[in-house]
């Protein structure tokens, strides 16, 4: 009886002993089956290995940066298509005509945005030939001239004759511009066409006339070379009436008349923009 009871106890001890040995064996000094020296070698190997990888990485990046030109992006056999953006940068506008404080922030945004288009400031820029690209040859790294775009050309949307950009009268202006893309030369005659997504059309007025982006503002040579460059703008004034109030109007604007893409399935800001406006009294 006694021996029967002892045997399992001995076995348990042995099992426990070999299990503990698997982690740390005090007789051989092995930890997880390896000696300290063996562990040290493994650690050293990985240290050298990863240091080598990191070195390769840094070297590759460095070589790549060395071959980059300061002025022109290196690879641009395919010039990307520009997005269309609006100012104020607000895709959901609520204009409460009896609360000027509320729409004043839109007005202020437009006013400060148009500072760079100040007529006096723009007179320092070139008077370019409308309808032609403003190609500028010259030495590599030579600064480029910029064509003038005066805010007064936005007429009723310039903020000069009407300092509230039409917001006070419930016929707001929004400004549209394309993203800057170096080297872009749109073919055709790009212009902005805005439509309201509803059955009856909304009357709109475009400035400059017909909402054209003149070719003379292309190509753009990049921030560094083309320091005084300003993007051409198109202003759209929504000629709303009292019947249009209190309903949310969805307006979609697209760049048409050119090879610029405006119907990309994946990017709904490529060559177009959709925003909502609600005017209340
Ligand atoms: C517009 O402003 C007026 C006056 O402050 C207010 O009574 C009204 O509720 C506002 N309307 C909306 C839709 O916010
Ligand atoms: C344009 O700039 C001039 C001076 O640089 C300034 O006197 C004038 O008030 C500015 N015009 C507007 C509309 O901001
Ligand atoms: C503007 O777009 C609408 C809807 O796509 C179209 O019916 C209209 O002819 C376009 N207008 C111009 C001037 O291209």
UniProtKB/TrEMBL annotation:
Q: One matching Pfam family, short form? A: Na_K-ATPase
- Keyword entries, A-Z: Cell membrane, Disulfide bond, Glycoprotein, Ion transport, Membrane, Potassium, Potassium transport, Signal-anchor, Sodium, Sodium transport, Sodium/potassium transport, Transmembrane, Transmembrane helix, Transport
One GO MF term: ATPase activator activity
- Give GO BP annotations, semicolon-separated: intracellular potassium ion homeostasis; intracellular sodium ion homeostasis; potassium ion import across plasma membrane; sodium ion export across plasma membrane
- Kindly state one GO CC term assigned in the UniProt record: sodium:potassium-exchanging ATPase complex
Membrane topology annotation: Single-pass type II membrane protein
Name the residues that span the membrane: 43-68
> Where is this chain's protein located in or outside the cell?
Cell membrane; Membrane
Give the chief site where it resides. Answer: membrane
InterPro entries, per the entry? Na/K_ATPase_sub_beta, Na/K_ATPase_sub_beta_sf
Q: Please indicate if the UniProt record lists Transferase as a keyword.
A: no
Family assignment from sequence similarity: Belongs to the X(+)/potassium ATPases subunit beta family.
Q: What is the stated purpose of this protein?
A: This is the non-catalytic component of the active enzyme, which catalyzes the hydrolysis of ATP coupled with the exchange of Na(+) and K(+) ions across the plasma membrane. The exact function of the beta-3 subunit is not known.
UniProt name for this protein:
Sodium/potassium-transporting ATPase subunit beta
């Amino acid at each position: 009886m006694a021996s029967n009871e002892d045997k399992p106890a001995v076995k348990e001890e042995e099992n426990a002993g070999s299990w503990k040995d698997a982690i740390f064996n005090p007789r051989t000094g092995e930890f997880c089956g390896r000696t300290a020296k063996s562990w040290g070698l493994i650690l050293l190997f990985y240290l050298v290995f990863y240091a080598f990888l990191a070195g390769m990485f840094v070297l590759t990046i460095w070589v790549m940066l060395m071959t980059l030109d300061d002025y022109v992006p290196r690879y641009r056999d395919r010039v990307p298509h520009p997005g269309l953006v609006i100012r104020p940068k607000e895709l959901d506008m609520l204009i409460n005509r009896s609360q000027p404080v509320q729409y004043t922030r839109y007005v202020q945004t437009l006013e400060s945005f148009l500072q760079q288009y100040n007529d006096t400031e723009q007179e320092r820029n070139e008077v370019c030939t409308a309808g032609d690209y403003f190609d500028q040859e010259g030495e590599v790294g030579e600064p480029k001239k910029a064509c003038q775009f005066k805010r007064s050309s936005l007429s009723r949307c310039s903020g000069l004759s009407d300092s509230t950009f039409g917001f006070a009268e419930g016929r707001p202006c929004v400004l549209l511009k394309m993203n800057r893309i170096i080297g872009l030369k749109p073919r055709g005659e790009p212009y902005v066409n805005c439509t309201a997504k509803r059955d009856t059309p909304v009357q709109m007025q475009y400035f400059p006339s017909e909402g054209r982006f003149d070719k003379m503002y292309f190509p753009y040579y990049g921030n560094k070379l083309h320091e005084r460059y300003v993007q051409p703008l198109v202003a759209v004034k929504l000629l709303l009436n009292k019947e249009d109030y209190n309903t949310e109007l969805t307006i979609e604007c697209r760049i048409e008349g050119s090879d610029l893409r405006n119907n990309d399935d994946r990017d709904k800001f490529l060559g177009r923009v959709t925003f909502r406006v609600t005017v209340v009294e």
